[in-house]
Amino acid sequence: MKDYKIVVIGAVKSTERILNGLLRNNINVVGVLGLDRSVSRKVSGYVDLGALCQVENVPYKSFININDDENIKWVRNLKPDYMFAVGFSQLLKHDILAIPQFGTIGFHPTKLPKGRGRAPLAWLTYNAEDGAASFFLMTDGADSGDIFVQEPFTVDKDDHAFHVEEKILSAIDKGLDKWLPLFKDGRTKPVPQCDEQASYTGIRREIDGLIDWEEPGDMTYARIRAASKPHPGAYTFANGRKLLIWEAAMIDRCNFWGAPGRVLEDVADGYLVQAGDKVLKLLQMEYFDNPKETVSLKVGQLLGYRPQQEIHKMYQEINALKKKIEELKK
């Protein structure tokens, strides 16, 4: 049996789940580097790994820039055989990647080589595409290294990002419990990926959650599902305030029809809203500036802005200001 020394680097729920899986399988975790809370604001699903390390008596160090000399020295002193680097956006430079004797293991929740790249949780949800908890040897390419294990999971057409995240975490548990006993015995050999079958996904930003009620309803529904927690949320505007929409449902059969963005009906568990050619039920919402305030919409209310109307209002206001200025000059 191999007593590999492992260092874990990361910052999110999947990192925490992997660390728990390593400890559950009696893997020798000699140190953990976790992203410092002070720079975590824009990290979706951030987890402070320090608390778990304290409970499990695992050496822990927080970082702001993973490639700083002090972090490299800290890892080098631990003399790891492998590193697990999971769930943070900083690129590991060669100086730190070269430290572990046998390499650095990465994680990606898609059926590699498909879906390499950025924002995999959002894109799997948006496309309602099945994924896999994939562990692989990191290389210079994006998610392109040889694969140790893939544990598949399904994504349904109505799943939101928070549903898919739970499926990913469950697949991590299953994949690690299958693979790590073999890993400890030195009986696992990674399998090369087929680059010819590779596909890639791009980065997503908060603005990608902005709802255009004129677009096809299926796209709006996908946008809401993909931007849901742990992401910043899909959003529109109501009464001049930013309104986050965390959960919605597609209404397949509806006897209401209206203009895009109009609130059609106030129902027991939400609001029916016309979204392009479809009707959506908005189930969970909150105001961006006051999440604790109860969201109250009115039937017939128009959500979002209409650019031409808003431009015309601005034009009128500018003209009114010009007239006042001219009057003051007299």
From TrEMBL:
GO CC term, one of those recorded: cytosol
Claim: Transferase is one of the keywords in the record: yes
SUPFAM superfamilies: FMT C-terminal domain-like, Formyltransferase
Formyl transferase N-terminal domain ranges (all copies): 5-173
GO molecular function terms attached to this record: methionyl-tRNA formyltransferase activity
Superkingdom: Bacteria
UniProt key word Transcription regulation: no
Positions of the Formyl transferase C-terminal domain: 208-286
Keywords: Transferase
Xref: InterPro entries: Formyl_trans_C, Formyl_transf_N, Formyl_transf_N_sf, Formyl_transferase-like_C_sf
Name under which the protein is recorded: Formyl transferase domain protein
Species for this entry: Chloroherpeton thalassium (strain ATCC 35110 / GB-78)
